[in-house]
Amino acid sequence: MLVGLCMGLTGAGGGVLAVPVLVVGMGIGVQEAVPLALLAIGSAATLGSLDGLRRGLVRYRATLLMAAAGVLTAALGTVLARSMPTDALMLLLCLVLIVSAVRQWPRQQTSTGRISEGMSFKPCRIDPDDGRFRWTPRCFFHIGAIGASAGLFTGLLGVGGGFLLVPFMRRYSELGMHSVVATSLAVIALVSLISVGHSVFIGTPVPGSGWIFILACATGMAMGRVLAPGLSPRHLQAGFAVLALAVAAGLATRSLIHLFT
């Protein structure tokens, strides 16, 4: 439930906690935890994206482009994960958690910073007449690259990719935060669920006991989407950052002890 709650409260980035919870909390191996984490993340993200669709926040073309690129690289990530040692995957996951924590930590924004951000030329601009993206080759490339990057980490570590989708879409497009989160959840839902199918196809089982975890994630997502509007974004970001750092420290300690004993 904690994973789904974090996804609902902070956006898609909460999915990075799924694999650590399964490995440490439920004693499941990394290779088995990845498809289960993706199934849970994908199910929870589907609920969140349906809410975004209802509110008209999901960008369909961007979602399909990022998902198409992400599915291809997620398959590559799955193959790489099967060839890497467990401890190496865990240490890489720790690094992802630390990066996510740093990105989520709230920062002070000066008025100068906001002005410069607004005046900067972003590759994916919004047409003021119809509110849609101007699909230039530069915009097409950046949106596809964002999806491909997120997909690679989705297949490799089972993290959903939200920790990349949200900040990169904010940086390279003029979308507002609510639309970014809703679109990211839609991408994660598509890429995660298709990646689960690929993992099962190549012989990675999904443990039967994991359905409780999936249900808890979906419940947490629904709760988070209800609670988020009434909570301070800065406090939510700070809380997630502290939690991610604590999980990273625990995983790193566990992996290093295993390596040297």
From TrEMBL:
Keyword S-adenosyl-L-methionine: no
GO cellular component terms, semicolon-separated: plasma membrane
Transmembrane intervals: 28-50, 62-82, 88-105, 140-169, 175-196, 208-228, 240-260
Cell compartments where the protein resides: Cell membrane; Membrane
Residues in coiled coil: none
Keywords in alphabetical order: Cell membrane, Membrane, Transmembrane, Transmembrane helix
Membrane disposition: Multi-pass membrane protein
Keyword 4Fe-4S: no
Family: Belongs to the 4-toluene sulfonate uptake permease (TSUP) (TC 2.A.102) family.
Protein name stated in the entry: Probable membrane transporter protein
